[in-house]
Write a structure and sequence with these properties.
By secondary structure, the chain is mostly helical. It is 55% helix and 2% strand. Strands 1-2 form a two-stranded antiparallel ribbon. Keywords: GTPase activation.
Length: 328
C-alpha cells in the first residue's frame, strides 16, 4: 500500500480514495504536476534536462516512505529532479498509460494523411480509454500545454516537449520491442507527432463529437422500434401491471425527511440535516459549516491538499450528491 511507482493506476486510486473519496487522478501525480507548475514552468530546459539519477532514486524512496504522512518537503526538491520523477512515474506504470491494447492504434494515427481524420481517430481512442487512464492523460496534457505556453522562458516549444515525452508514453518496458532495424528514427518522430497533436488539440479530444451522438441516437431509436408491441392488449396489460406496482410502492414507501452528509476527513459522524419543502442547498452547507465550527475544526489532511482554519466562508464549501435523489 505504500508503494507509489510501478503500481497500477487502479490500485493507486483505490488507496488515494481512502483519503479523498472523489479522487480521479493519482495524488502523487497531482503533487508532481503542482510542484512543477509552481516552481518549474520558468526553468530552462524543464523536462528535457535530466536531474540527478541518484537524487531521483533517493526521492522515490523518500516519497514512498513519507508522501502519505505529509512529511515530504516539496520545496527542497530540485525542479529537474521533479520532472525526472514525473517521467519515471509514467514510464514505470505496469501497463502503458495509453494501454497495451490501444497503443498500436495511437502510434498508427500519424499514418492518416488528413488532419481532420487524424484528430477524429485520436478523439475516439481517448474516449475508449479506461477512465483512470483518460483522467490521468488529461491532467498530464494540460500540464504539458502550460509548459509550452512558457516557451519564452523555459525554451521548451511544442516539438521539444513532444519529443521528450513521447518515449515515456510509447516505449513501454512491458511490451516486446519489435522495431525494425533502421526504423527507430521514423517511429520516434511519428510518436512525437502524435503527442504534439494531443497537446496542441487537446480541447477537441475530450468531447463526444456530434456524429457519434447522432449515431447513438439513431441506434437507440432503431432498438426502440424493434421492441414495440403491435398487440394493444399486451401493452395495456403491461401498463396496468406498472400502474398497480407504482400504487403499491407509493402506499408502502414513506418519504424520508432527512439527508446525511458524509465528510470522513472532517467529521467523525454523519451530519443529519432535516429537509422540508423550503430547504435549499445553501441551508445544508450553512448547517455543515456551523457543525464544523462547533467542533473547532482546523486540520491539514495527510497529503497537504486541504488547508483551512477556523474562519470559513460558505463559498469555500461544495456539496456533492452521491447516488439517488437528494429528496429521497
Amino acid at each position: 500500500e505504500k508503494r507509489l511507482f510501478g503500481v497500477p493506476l487502479n490500485a493507486l486510486l483505490e488507496n488515494d480514495q481512502k483519503l479523498l473519496p472523489n479522487t480521479k487522478v493519482p495524488l502523487l501525480l497531482q503533487a508532481l504536476l503542482s510542484c512543477l507548475e509552481k516552481r518549474g514552468l520558468e526553468t530552462e530546459g524543464i523536462l528535457r534536462v535530466s536531474g540527478s539519477q541518484t537524487r531521483i532514486k533517493s526521492l522515490e524512496q523518500k516519497l514512498e516512505r513519507d508522501f502519505y504522512t505529509g512529511l515530504f518537503r516539496w520545496d527542497e526538491v530540485h525542479q529537474n529532479d521533479v520532472s525526472g520523477l514525473l517521467k519515471r512515474f509514467i514510464r514505470e506504470l505496469p501497463a502503458p498509460l495509453l494501454t497495451a491494447e490501444y497503443l498500436p492504434a495511437f502510434a498508427a494515427v500519424q499514418n492518416i494523411p488528413d488532419l481532420k481524420q487524424r484528430l477524429q481517430a485520436l478523439n475516439l481512442l481517448i474516449l475508449i480509454l479506461p477512465e483512470p487512464n483518460r483522467n490521468t492523460l488529461k491532467a498530464l496534457l494540460e500540464f504539458l500545454s502550460k509548459v509550452v505556453a512558457r516557451e519564452n522562458n523555459n525554451k521548451m516549444n511544442l516539438w521539444n516537449v513532444s519529443t521528450v515525452m513521447a518515449p515515456n508514453l510509447f516505449m513501454h518496458k512491458g511490451l516486446p520491442n519489435k522495431i525494425p532495424e533502421g526504423k527507430e528514427k521514423q517511429l520516434a518522430e511519428g510518436a512525437a507527432d502524435v503527442v504534439r497533436m494531443m497537446i496542441h488539440y487537446q480541447d477537441l479530444l475530450w468531447t463526444v463529437s456530434s456524429f457519434l451522438v447522432a449515431q447513438v441516437r439513431k441506434l437507440n431509436e432503431s432498438n426502440s422500434k424493434r421492441y414495440q408491441f403491435c398487440d394493444k392488449r399486451i401493452k395495456n396489460l403491461l401498463r396496468k401491471i406498472h400502474a398497480d406496482k407504482d400504487k403499491v410502492e407509493k402506499n408502502q414507501a414513506e418519504p424520508s425527511k432527512i439527508v446525511k452528509v458524509h465528510a470522513s476527513l472532517l467529521l467523525k459522524d454523519s451530519l443529519e440535516v432535516h429537509l422540508n419543502n423550503a430547504t435549499r442547498v445553501a441551508d445544508v452547507l450553512r448547517q455543515f459549516q456551523k457543525n464544523l465550527c462547533q467542533n473547532g475544526w482546523n486540520i491539514v489532511n495527510t497529503v497537504n491538499l486541504i488547508k483551512c482554519n477556523n474562519s470559513m466562508e460558505c463559498t469555500n464549501l461544495l456539496l456533492y450528491e452521491v447516488g439517488g435523489n437528494i429528496g429521497k
